[in-house]
Design brief:
The protein is an alpha+beta fold. 35% of the residues lie in helices and 24% in strands. The strands form 5 sheets. It has a 7-stranded antiparallel β-sheet with strand order 3-2-1-14-13-12-11, with helices on both faces. The radius of gyration is 23 Å and the shape is globular. The relative contact order is 0.13.
Length: 461
C-alpha cells in the first residue's frame, strides 16, 4: 500500500513539475517571439536580455548578432555600452561619498568646484543629481570628435547659460552628470571610473563592467550600429575622452547587471536611506514633484511601482526596469541607435505580469484631448501658441530638444489616448499615449490653476 502511495505521489509530483516547466516554456517562448519580432521590425542586429524574478535569473540570453561583419552571435557575456544607464552608477558613487561624509546633498557645488559662474552659486548636489539644476545638454555646436580634459569640459559647461533657476523645473542634463564626475575627482583625487570600479564593480563581482576604451582589447565586445535611410551602418565616431565621462560611458553585460540588481535588492552597496533618496521623486521649488530621483526615473503603471532608466550612445541602447511591487527586473541591451529599448523592456514585463500593461481611462473631455493632440503637433512644428504656456515652459519650448527632433522623423501620428488624469491643488496632470508607426511615446502634461500649461514632456514608452 505504501509503495503504491509513494509511486502515485511521485507521478503526481512529476506531473506538477512538467506543468510548471511547460508554463515556464510558454512564457519564454512568447518572450522569444516578441523580441525576435521587434528586432525584425526595428531592424536591430542584436539584443541581450536578462529577466530576474524573485531575486533569481529567469531568462538570460542573447538574440541576433553582436557583430554583423564577422557574424558573431550575442550571448550573455556580450559587452554592450551603457549610455545613460551609467548615470545610476555615478549617482551611487556620489551617495557613497555622502555616506562617507565627504559630500552633502544640499551643499552648493561651488564648495567642491571652487570658482563658478554667478548663475551656478545656488546649485546644489541634489539638484544636479535630479536634473533640476538648470544646467543643459551638450550644445548644438559641441565638437564630439575633439578630446577634452575634465577641466575643459567643465569650462565649456560653465559658459552655457542656465535654462532656468535651480530647482525651478526638471530638464535632463548630461553636462550636469559630467560635472558630477569632476566633483568626484576633486573630492577623492580619483577619476570617477576608478572609484566606481573600486567601490561598486569589484565588490559586486561585476567583472566585465568598466569605463569604455576603444583602444583596449575587450573580449566579447559588441559593435554599435545606426540606421541611415533604412540601411544599417557602423556607429558614428567620437573622441576617446568623451567615452570616459560620468554621464554614461560604461561597458557592461547582462550578467553584470544581474549582480547590480541583486545589490540594489539586498542593500549591498548603499544604505536603505540612500536608496530611498535615489528613488524618491524630486521636489521642485513650487512644491510639485517630478518623477525622477538620482539617476533613476520613477513611475507607476496601474498602481505597480517602476524604477528604471534607459541609455543611448554610439549605436547602442540600454534599459533596466525594476518592477519592485512584482519582484521583477528586466534588463535590455541592443546595438542599434534607433532601438526603442523601452518598448522591449516593457513588452517583456507585460508578458510575465499582464497587469503591467497600461490601460486607458475613460476620457471625461474628448474635445480637450483632441485640442491637446493638435497642440502637440503644433509644438513639433514650432507653431504652438506660446501664450498657452507658463513663461518657464515658453523658455523650454525655445530650447533645443533632441527627442522632439527625433519624434518628427517617426511619421504620421496614429492615435492619441488619455491614460491618466489627476487633479491636485496645483492643477491637473495628464498622461497620453501616442502611437506612431513602429513606436509608442507618452506625453506628460500639467495645467496649473490659471489654466496655463506648466509641464509638457515627451517620454519613451
Amino acid at each position: 500500500m505504501r509503495r503504491t502511495f509513494t509511486a502515485l505521489f511521485t507521478v503526481f509530483c512529476c506531473l506538477l513539475l512538467i506543468q510548471f516547466a511547460a508554463g515556464q516554456s510558454a512564457v519564454e517562448s512568447s518572450i522569444d517571439h516578441f523580441i525576435r519580432a521587434e528586432m525584425e521590425r526595428q531592424k536591430i542586429p542584436g539584443v541581450s536580455l536578462a529577466v530576474v524574478r524573485d531575486g533569481k535569473p529567469l531568462i538570460v540570453k542573447g538574440y541576433g548578432f553582436a557583430n554583423l561583419e564577422h557574424q558573431i552571435h550575442v550571448k550573455p557575456e556580450t559587452i554592450f555600452q551603457s549610455g545613460s544607464v551609467g548615470k545610476q552608477f555615478t549617482a551611487t558613487a556620489v551617495m557613497l561619498l555622502v555616506e562617507d561624509g565627504k559630500i552633502g546633498l544640499d551643499e552648493k557645488i561651488s564648495k567642491y568646484l571652487g570658482d563658478v559662474p554667478d548663475a551656478w552659486k545656488n546649485i546644489t548636489i541634489r539638484q544636479v543629481l535630479s536634473h533640476t539644476s538648470g544646467m543643459t545638454d551638450y550644445p548644438t555646436d559641441f565638437d564630439f570628435r575633439r578630446d577634452y580634459t575634465e577641466e575643459e569640459l567643465l569650462k565649456r559647461a560653465k559658459e552655457i547659460p542656465l535654462a532656468f533657476q535651480p530647482g525651478e523645473k526638471w530638464s535632463y542634463s548630461n553636462l550636469g552628470f559630467v560635472t558630477l564626475g569632476v566633483i568626484i575627482n576633486k573630492v577623492t583625487g580619483k577619476f570617477y571610473g576608478d572609484l566606481i570600479q573600486e567601490r561598486i564593480f569589484k565588490p559586486l563581482g561585476m567583472t566585465t563592467a568598466r569605463v569604455i576604451s576603444e583602444a583596449d582589447i575587450v573580449p566579447n565586445r559588441a559593435s554599435g550600429y545606426r540606421l541611415i535611410k533604412g540601411e544599417v551602418k557602423n556607429q558614428d565616431w567620437v573622441s576617446p575622452s568623451l567615452n570616459t565621462t560620468a554621464d554614461g560611458a560604461l561597458y557592461m553585460t547582462a550578467l553584470d547587471m544581474i549582480k547590480w540588481d541583486d545589490a540594489l535588492r539586498n542593500g549591498k552597496i548603499l544604505k536603505k536611506s540612500s536608496l530611498d533618496a535615489m528613488w524618491a521623486p524630486v521636489k521642485l521649488n513650487n512644491g510639485q514633484s517630478h518623477p525622477y530621483g538620482f539617476g533613476w526615473a520613477v513611475r507607476s503603471v496601474n498602481g505597480h511601482r517602476v524604477i528604471e532608466h534607459g541609455g543611448a550612445w554610439q549605436g547602442f541602447k540600454a534599459h533596466i526596469a525594476r518592477y519592485v511591487d512584482d519582484n521583477l527586473t528586466v534588463i535590455v541591451f541592443a546595438n542599434l541607435a534607433q532601438t526603442n529599448q523601452v518598448r522591449l523592456a516593457n513588452g517583456v514585463a507585460q508578458l510575465i505580469v499582464p497587469e503591467l500593461k497600461p490601460k486607458p481611462i475613460a476620457d471625461p473631455d474628448p474635445a480637450f484631448t483632441a485640442r491637446t493632440k493638435e497642440l502637440l503637433l503644433a509644438v513639433l512644428d514650432k507653431k504652438a501658441d506660446k501664450d498657452r504656456f507658463t513663461p518657464e515652459m515658453q523658455k523650454a519650448l525655445d530650447s533645443s530638444d533632441r527627442l522632439v527632433e527625433y519624434v518628427k522623423t517617426l511619421g504620421t501620428l496614429q492615435s492619441f489616448t488619455l491614460m491618466e488624469r489627476a487633479e491636485s491643488s496645483d492643477g491637473v496632470r495628464y498622461r497620453y499615449k501616442i502611437e506612431y508607426p513602429g513606436m509608442s511615446l507618452f506625453l506628460a502634461m500639467s495645467v496649473n490653476k490659471e489654466g496655463k500649461i506648466a509641464g509638457f514632456a515627451l517620454q519613451p514608452e
